[in-house]
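assembly run, all chains below
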Amino acid sequence: MRPPTIRDVAERAGVSKSLVSLVLRGSEQVRPEKREAVLAAVDELGYRPNAAARSLSERRTRTVGVLLNDMRNPWFVELLDGLNSRLHDNGLRMLLADGHLNRRLGEDLTRTFTELRVDGLIAVGTLPPSQALRSAAAQVPTVVAGAREPTLPHVDVVAGDDQSGARLATEHLIALGHRRIGHIAGDGVVGALRRRSFETVMREHGLTDLAAVERGDLTEEGGYRATVRLLSAPERPTAIVAFNDMSCVGALSAAEELGLRVPRDLSLVGYDNTYVSRLRHLWLTTVDNASHDVGRRAAQCLLDRIADPTRPAQVVLTTPTLEIRGTTGPPAGS
Amino acid sequence: MRPPTIRDVAERAGVSKSLVSLVLRGSEQVRPEKREAVLAAVDELGYRPNAAARSLSERRTRTVGVLLNDMRNPWFVELLDGLNSRLHDNGLRMLLADGHLNRRLGEDLTRTFTELRVDGLIAVGTLPPSQALRSAAAQVPTVVAGAREPTLPHVDVVAGDDQSGARLATEHLIALGHRRIGHIAGDGVVGALRRRSFETVMREHGLTDLAAVERGDLTEEGGYRATVRLLSAPERPTAIVAFNDMSCVGALSAAEELGLRVPRDLSLVGYDNTYVSRLRHLWLTTVDNASHDVGRRAAQCLLDRIADPTRPAQVVLTTPTLEIRGTTGPPAGS
DNA sequence: CGTACGTTCTGGAACGGTCCAAAGCCGGTC
DNA sequence: GACCGGCTTTGGACCGTTCCAGAACGTACG
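ok done. output:
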């Protein structure tokens, strides 16, 4: 038994399929009694429009594809929430695909999305550079959210202002009295921006020589190892600015393992204000990127770009704030 | 400029659209030179089949819809991974929708999926009971994964064996020498199963009177509050079996706040073996549900059910294991 | 040489919607 | 009564595929 089609509804209501279509799309030009007959028929048959048929005919899918870099890293949840709300308000649905899950399968997600003929594409987080994304972005309106790359001709970028975020974190520590400060660096453009900002602030305060940087890799493990390296220097830093919350948690573990109390012996600042940072037992001081807002704005950007695909690419940065919790305090000596 | 269609490819290759279709679907009945001509044309034009047109004609979408209860709770990630790999092997793509994100928008996710005419539906985790899901399940092959409800006529259930999981946790604590043990209970059938199993094991060891149960709500906050209640009893428990990792983290915070050392003064067992439990700084002893396996089996179930939609519903349970980490040890007195 | 039979290839009918030009209906005007 | 114009309604073309019946083209055989 196949699901009812618009023709079944039309027959039942005693009208033409065109009229059913009009009613379903909310036309004013329909006499009330016919409208009700149609709606009654829809109800009785449990009719649901077929999205494939509709989009074939309309030449659009009212669907945007969202590419996630890795679900295991929880920073994107708020962003998605913001995205979703704004897209939903404009009658668009969201399809999710996780790059990490699929990379190991060697599947190209953008391929799926182009076959689906999504109306737009949102890349959330830093994705591995790929030719596929380049060419997809050339065909369908695309926005990068919560990351700074790739930078492509007609692709907008919406993200937190990493420079001012890292500045907030670093200045907070300096204001508390820290002088010798370490940084766990991340990958890509975002990593470079936060790192450079950290270094700039240190320089502004004449602390260049007291700044130490070790490379992490966005994971807890990476943060842990970077911290061990930072803390094994002859003069250990009294505070660390971590690239993100996950690596900050790694730092927390390293500190604990080395017998350091946080924040008494070591202050830590994370980045992203993920729910992990909000876990009472961790309670990380962290930089909040206003991810929900980033998501909403990214959605708006996409809507604008769908309306005018050729407009110049723009970069929208949100202003981060510092969320002070339990992992920062004045250094032991002060 | 519209994306090329199969007719464009046919024209360019100097064949009929039917032949192009044959080539693209991998027919053997095509002479090599024509095949190559077609493939070359596909390549030059950058042709991608239109999924909507295809599914309209084939009457299937090669897509399954996945309903998540809440992205903020990380237990499902492994499960999705398992799901995805098996579905992918069978040429099915996965569409994700998060119940939590959409509930606040008041949108009915199953509606989107039925309009999309997905070939199958997978409900991941305990979803709020809804008439929509009932009726969707009546129309399209459906499997519940990582939860035990709803139980519907032709809906399979694939999940960890909560009874034996809670038993593992409880017996582990008893074997360590704990006698007075608390439980943070969860919601729904899963919550009831784990709770009953906890109580059964306690009874088997003659510890009924030393068992205490407080209701949590699956979140850290709920776990925290339940633990405060458990620990404010005149005789506090020396160990707690938490419903899940998140509430276990809440318990950890509560213990810390009350000045108890874990595991010296209080042992804790979580549930789900999420990446949160693996964070070094938390390092929770937890029950592993073999989520990846649950995902794979759920996918297999769905495939079987798509092949034969009327077969009787089955319940598949995986055997959990205990992951012993840092939050359990012998009680202080022993 | 005509016929039968594989192997390849093709035209056209679905699939289930949207959209548009045109038709039907109505009361009001001249 | 013919004509007009606004409001409703309709038939049919179209969207880009798949699928099927049958055409075209060998090749082998009697």
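Chain B has a mean pLDDT of 93.

Chain B touches chain A through 53 residues (CB under 8 Å).

not gonna interpret more than that til we talk
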